[in-house]
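Record type: ASSEMBLY
Status: queued
Input:
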Amino acid sequence: MTSIRHSFFAMLDTVILVVCGALMWWGFAAMAGPHVLTGPIDTFRNLGQITGDPEFLANAWETLRAFLLALVIAWASGLLIGIIIGAHRLTGKVVEPILTGFYAIPKITLYPIILLLFGLSLSARVAFGAIHGIVPVALFTMAAVRDVRPIYFRAAQSLRLTPAALVWHIIVPASLPGIVSGLRIGFSLTLLGTLIGEMFASQRGLGHMLIIAMETDNVRLLIALALLLVMVATIAGAVLLAIDRKLHRRSVKGQ
Amino acid sequence: MSTAGTIRIVVLLTAVAGLEAACRSGLIAPFSIVPPSAMLVSAFRILASGEYTADILATLGTVALAAVLSIAVGFAFGVILYLFPRLKRAADPFLASYYAVPSFIFYPLFIVMFGLNRWPLVAVAFIFSCVAMTIATIDGFLNVRPILRKVAQSMHLSRSQMIRLILLPAALPYLFTGIKLAIAYAFIGVIAGEFIQAGSGLGYRIAFAYESFQTGTMYGLLLILLTCVVSVNTVLGVRERRLYERLNR
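Status: finished
Output:
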């Protein structure tokens, strides 16, 4: 009961913080004027208008398609790499520093190379989104698989499991919380990569729409799109975070 | 050197040699990737000619400014949130999902607000890296061992003494991780901004070379940029590891 009350007050505080943020936004907008920054109420009204616009819908669909394809590639190949380098120690030792080094460089610098290889196409945007997400998924999966207790592997050995059965019945369930953390971060970075890819050298998608809005000085559209993307990303992030935390809590309890 | 280290160097050298061979034999067309040796030659030529020195310095200067701002403001935010737990609890959901939002969507907005100069770059790099420092600061303070707090209490330290003599030194490794992340993120922010839209800087020159089909120059510049970033990361990474070793001793 007290914990419910506790979380209710935490939620109330968060709501108060959001309201304060909106008031500050409103204040800045009132000071700067609508040609620099539109206020919160105006922005929501603009957002309602553009969501009915066929051009917006076409661009949103392009972004969604590229993002989902990139996400599937990033998740699948990140998991595969992570399980291999997590289960095989020497491979892990060899590959890990290369991956962490790659993780730290600004991937945007590689975009021209991808464009030169794939051309200005959907596949270039998908590839660029995917390279943002693969490495964190692989690194988190690797760490989670390494932490699987050795006794599980011995049990698998005595049951003579095939490698596929070992992965499916032992490794994945035992390292699920860590894997999901990786998938969550991979999700965010893939979205970031997809949108940056669209903002630089692309003719389609919401990222491109943002750039067009900037070039035509269309502040209303710019801020409405930014608000939409912030809301979608925050909600998706919060849902994944909730799943992530639930799995971690359960695994702590189970041990 | 360890076996893994040796294998790693062999793997990397084989990859570079394979790329060189594939480019030289025409398996990879020269307009998409030039041989690694040609990248190196191009990088040295660019540095020797001094043609791009102003852009390189502009980029590094912008990164430095954005990083210093992020570290200072991020640290201040962290301290405030640590001192007011209720505020921290209210802000927690936003801190947790902050990096789910692709910050670069604000770059066009900053250009409209500040004009097409270096300030939108500073702004986008700042909002991208500031929160990493805030999160690291809070983590550092919350992870200070309880016994140290008790020591401070039994010695009747004042609040400012407590922060200066106990909390800051104890949280130092975490703060350093925050600084490292803030610098890495500032690099990403500035370079990505210069790619998307700018009038000067290393990222802008790379994008320009790409658009005007100067593939050799593009790879030379890329090599220079990656060398800068990787050396900064490596130096900070080594320093960071030493700090954590001290913590575990």
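Annotation: Chain B touches chain A through 55 residues (CB under 8 Å).
Annotation: The radius of gyration of chain B is 22 Å.
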